[in-house]
Amino acid sequence: MEGKKAKPWVPIEKGSGPEAVPLRPASVGRRRAPLATPEPAARAPRRFRAVSVMSRAVLADDVELPELLAALGQVARVGDVSLFVWAVDAERWRLLTLAEQQAVWKRRA
């Protein structure tokens, strides 16, 4: 640090620091009651559709799970049908994933 001059030290005057700010007591409010969460609406039973892959014939249309499982009883392999579920939010039929189709297939009659 050659060539640089150190700045002279200047004492802080009394009454100019953070101690000069008057303190006031902190106010502690009452705890608020938690907001009431509405009960979730009862979900309607899922609706399913089964379509033959080879003939594109509808084996089951807009049925609940027990009727779908009964309709799958006449199908030989899981790959012979396309299974759909009604997506309420999108208002359209959604193709089940392979894992979902296999889960349904295991429950068939």
Helicity, as a percent range:
10-25%
Would you identify the regions where 5 or more consecutive residues have pLDDT less than 50?
A: none
Secondary structure: number of strands: 4
Largest sheet report: 4 strands, antiparallel
Instruction: Estimate the mean pLDDT confidence.
Output: 85
> What is the radius of gyration computed over CA atoms, rounded to a whole number of angstroms?
36 Å
Structural class: alpha+beta
Within the largest sheet, what's the order of strands? 2-1-3-4
Series of secondary-structure elements, N-terminal to C-terminal: EEHEEH
From the spread of the alpha carbons, the general shape counts as: elongated
Strand content: 15-25%
N- to C-terminal distance: 88 Å
Count of runs of 4 or more consecutive helical residues: 2
Please give a handful of descriptors for the protein shown.
single chain; 109 residues; alpha+beta; 4-stranded antiparallel β-sheet; 2 helices; 4 strands; 15% helix; elongated
SSE arrangement:
Elements: E1 48-52, E2 58-63, H1 65-71, E3 81-87, E4 92-95, H2 98-106
Antiparallel strand pairs: 1-2, 1-3, 3-4
Q: Can you characterise this structure?
A:
This protein has helices spanning 65-71, 98-106; strands at residues 48-52, 58-63, 81-87, 92-95. It has a four-stranded antiparallel beta sheet with strand order 2-1-3-4, covered by helices on one side. It contains two helices and four strands; from the N terminus they run ββαββα. The model has no long low-confidence stretch (mean pLDDT 85). A hairpin with a 4-residue loop joins strand 3 (81-87) and strand 4. With 109 residues, the protein is of the alpha+beta class. The chain has a domain at 48-106.
